[in-house]
Amino acid sequence: xxxxxxxxxxxxxxxxxxxxxxxxxxxxxxxxxxxxxxxxxxxxxxxxxxxxxxxxxxxxxxxxxxxxxxxxxxxxxxxxxxxxxxxxxxxxxxxxxxxxxxxxxxxxxxxxxxx
Length: 115
Ligand SMILES: Cc1cc2nc3c(=O)[nH]c(=O)nc-3n(C[C@H](O)[C@H](O)[C@H](O)COP(=O)(O)O)c2cc1C
Fold this sequence. Notes:
Helix content: 25-40%
Largest sheet: 5 strands, mixed
CATH architecture: 3-Layer(aba) Sandwich
Number of helices: 3
Number of strands: 5
CATH superfamily: Flavodoxin domain
Bound molecules: flavin mononucleotide
CATH class: Alpha Beta
Order of helices and strands: EHEHEEHE
Structural class: alpha/beta
Number of domains: 1
Shape: globular
Low-confidence stretches: none
């Protein structure tokens, strides 16, 4: 088991690619946040925007990794309406509440639209 865990959510694959590249570089474990909401299509996009604007978090599946066992947790999220995506809002709460080793670090990565 690595001391570094990358936790991410990705709706369309960009954050997944960044997470995979970082995991290779850091020899890190990877945990994908599984969202229980259907975010496909136009209605799904609308749900993303509404959740973000309202500051709602999503219902997600339990994580497979024990977050308290990792010294560093890197969290990757798409940016939705200028904010952290709803599934990552839920995942970050799990990371925050997990007991962490002394001097543990939690780092956020925000995937934005390319300009
Ligand atoms: C509903 C929605 C809202 C978005 N809002 C923003 C935004 O405010 N700023 C931005 O830079 N990108 C925004 N984006 C673009 C995504 O953050 C960007 O495409 C991201 O790389 C997607 O990551 P993913 O492929 O891992 O889901 C938005 C995308 C969606 C679907």
